[in-house]
Design goal:
With 373 residues, this protein is an alpha+beta fold. Helix content is 40%, strand content 17%. The protein has 10 helices and 13 strands. The strands form 3 sheets. The protein has a 7-stranded mixed β-sheet. Strands 5-10-7-8 form a 4-stranded antiparallel β-sheet, with no helix packed on it. It has a two-stranded antiparallel ribbon with strand order 12-13. Helix 4 crosses helix 5 (151-179). The protein binds 2-oxoglutaric acid (AKG) and fe (ii) ion. It holds the Pfam family 2OG-FeII_Oxy.
């Protein structure tokens, strides 16, 4: 069979027929990466958007590079064509917005809005302008215990969470591949004795008359592993801190925003960092935000992957002949202990949390922490 190579063949057809992509496509891939490099040099990079579907095409390599770049330099990226159907996302959005109107809006007005800005002229530092409830999916679901949820909403959120769980595990393996860790390493590292903790924080950020006085959500890094966010496609507000500047995470229809939590910073020995982010309240429009947290199990023992520590040491010795160990040393601890500490220190820098866990490390019994899945 003769296959004609043109730029118009679907990209995965090249793979299927074991053909080299035409020069035009190869050049396009190179251009993509070189373009990001140039943008970085000029401090003009744009927020990374990754088309996950391209993993099944000739562009797998460049897509993996983009994920790597996003993990190393942003701690955040936005996924399109991630495998969760648009129809399901539309249902989640519609039912979340209806639920907010029906069961949450009045409560927000009474509990937050009426108190927060009463006669206040200075910035409020201990409150957020958000309306929130939590769903837990793993290790056991609490969905049936949450009051005020309609049956169809419960059902749709369950299906959505199942899709996100699969996506999280797929992403963890992509991270393993980029980090040179064996497939399944991160999933196992999160597993503990009962598997990962997985939950969803459903939030709405209502319009705020004085956004200069109160944040939608104050700046923080996330404590856990991988965070998957379905955010409003019209009302913006999420920002991350990059090179000392707050950068908007652009709303985009049917996308899922991913960010990395403190545990991934520890396990990767700082190769990937959790990044500060915050939500700015808006004067117009209510912003929907559905953040799902794929975290270690409560008794999982978290510590830097030995191969990444060894690698880091090699890199250090290569650049630092004086052998001054300038590298950060991360602690080893039980995830639940970290969460207890985080509860009181969420809106502070992560470094003192890591330091505090080092002091606690001596009390951890360090038998083989990784349970085989
Ligand atoms: O609402 C958002 O976009 C982000 C929420 C968030 O950062 C969090 O709940 O940790
Ligand atoms: Fe967060």
């Amino acid at each position: 069979m003769q296959v004609i190579q043109t730029l118009f063949l679907p990209l995965n057809a090249y793979k299927l027929h074991q053909l080299d992509p035409p020069l035009g496509i190869r050049k396009e891939i190179k251009r993509d990466l070189a373009g990001r490099e140039r943008e970085r040099e000029r401090g003009m990079e744009s927020f990374p958007v990754i088309n996950l579907e391209k993993l099944d095409s000739e562009e797998r390599g460049v897509t993996m590079e983009l994920i790597k770049d996003a993990c190393e330099n942003w701690g955040f990226f936005e996924l399109v064509n991630h495998g969760i159907s648009h129809e399901l996302m539309d249902k989640v959005e519609k039912l979340t917005k209806e639920h907010y109107k029906k069961s949450m809006e009045q409560r927000f007005k009474e509990l937050v809005a009426s108190k927060a800005l009463e006669g206040v002229e200075t910035e409020i530092n201990d409150m957020d302008w958000e309306s929130t409830f939590y769903l837990r999916h793993l290790p056991t679901s609490n969905m049936s215990e949450i009051p005020d949820l309609e049956d169809d909403y419960r059902k749709v959120m369950k299906e959505f969470a199942e899709g996100l769980e699969k996506l999280a595990e797929q992403l963890l393996d992509l991270l393993c591949e980029n980090l040179g860790l064996e497939k399944g390493y991160l999933k196992k590292a999160f597993y503990g004795s009962k598997g990962p903790t997985f939950g969803t924080k459903v939030s709405n950020y209502p319009p705020c008359p004085r956004p200069e006085l109160i944040k939608g959500l104050r700046a923080h890094t996330d404590a856990g592993g991988l965070i998957l966010l379905f955010q409003d496609d019209k009302v913006s507000g999420l920002q991350l801190l990059k090179d000392g500047q707050w950068v908007d995470v652009p709303p985009m229809c049917h996308s899922i925003v991913i960010n990395l939590g403190d545990q991934l910073e520890v396990i990767t020995n700082g190769k990937y960092k959790s990044v500060m982010h915050r939500v700015i309240a808006q004067t117009d429009g209510t912003r929907m935000s559905i953040a799902s947290f794929y975290n270690p199990g409560s008794d999982a023992v978290i510590y830097p992957a030995p191969t990444l520590v060894a690698k880091n040491k090699e890199d250090q010795t290569a650049v630092d002949s004086d052998d001054q160990l300038s590298q950060v040393v991360y602690p080893k601890f039980v995830f639940e202990d970290y969460m207890k500490l985080y509860a009181g220190l969420k809106f502070q820098a992560k470094e003192p949390r890591f330091e505090a866990m080092k002091t606690m490390a001596s009390t951890v019994t360090l038998s083989d922490p990784i349970v085989t899945v």
